[in-house]
Amino acid sequence: MNKNWPLWEIFIRSKAGLNHKHVGSLHAADADMAVQNARDVYTRRNEGVSIWVVETKHITASDPDDSDQMYEPAKDKAYRHPTFYDLPDELKHM
Amino acid sequence: MTDQNKFDYILQQADNCLILGQRLAEWCGHGPILEQDIALTNISLDLIGQARLFYQYAAEIQGEEKTEDDLAYLRDAWGFKNVLLVEQPNGDFGFTIMRQFLYDTFSCYFYEALMSSSDERLASIAAKSHKETLYHMKWSADWVIRLGDGTVESHNRVQQALNELWSYKDEIVIETSADSDALAAGYGVSLAELKEKRDAKITAVLEEATLSIPEGTYSHKGGKEGVHSEHLGYILADLQFLQRAYPGNEW
To answer: Which InterPro entries does the record cross-reference, listed alphabetically (chain A) (predicted)?
Structure first.
């Protein structure tokens, strides 16, 4: 029966102010169950304060075969990095 | 012993938590899918955690240098005050879900009321446990609805579970002398008020689950006074073996 349950990708916000981060995937019959399952599987050791679930089939990924044309051209363009600014200490998580 | 009645009152709830926690722990590694295996054992650990808070307090009241471990591991079946509902065997997943639902609908409103206890220690245990129990009730109610309003087979199985457990659901809201004394003394909960809220919740969920509500009014009794079904002895044999065979042994 569980073979028929769709796969869901799980995103957890570890604390207020941080991004939701992909932590893994699990099976569930619908979105409500996916949130509950994610709560039990991924936040039982106090890992999170918010959960997003997305059914895996709704995610479109880039093709690894296109890596050369997609990512190589950015490698030698150091001037696109804002590395010439001094960041104040108060600014966290940059 | 400074307060026998309060001691008995606390043990009623402590033993419900421990025995149901032990029953749910039997699911470890046997859940229908990995995610629900973890859900079942998470709830088990919540319940054992609640049991510990109550046993620690009860041991302090008992004095005589007793600890929570003495209460959990070294009492015999007739000393346990849990209701018969929580010692019933797991059965299939639908049966475990229904047993859990019939317990959660009690414990949720019990802790809600116990938060107003005149005993600060009980009120604080209740506040912590209530949050956990709200989630347990959401989980078990959702599953009752999923299974009841699911396939023909899931509906039939959970209906069968409801029929079998119906006569076990009310013992927990029938007053013992410990309950009525606790209410009179101000630290206990009104089971009459609790029953009204609980019954309304049970009815609403069962109707949404398209289950037929059994008509029987008979209730099994005895657990709260230490008179148990044959099942409790086997549970305690599993639970207490290590401490009985190797007294004082630690990890």
So the answer is: PaaB, PaaB_sf
Amino acid at A35: V
Is the CATH number 3.10.20.520 carried by domain A2-75?
A: yes
The Cα of B39 is separated from the nearest Cα of chain A by a number of Å equal to 6
Q: Global pTM?
A: 0.89
Query: Can you give the residue ranges of every domain in chain A?
Result: 2-75
Helix, strand and coil percent figures for chain B, each rounded to 5 = 70, 0, 30
> Strands A50-55 and A20-27: what pairing?
unpaired
Which of B35, B42, B138 shows the shortest C-beta gap to A28? B35
Structural domains in chain B, CATH included, are: 4-245 (1.20.1260.10)
A9 — phi, psi (to 5°)?
Answer: -95, 135
Q: Which residue has the tokens 């960041």?
A: A87
* Predicted pLDDT at B89: 98
- Distance in angstroms (rounded) separating the CA atoms of residues B232 and B139: 26
Residue B249: per-residue pLDDT: 85
Low-confidence spans in chain B with pLDDT less than 50: none
Nearest beta carbon to residue B39 from set A27, A29, A40: A40
- Indicate the pLDDT class of residue A35, thresholds 50, 70 and 90: very high
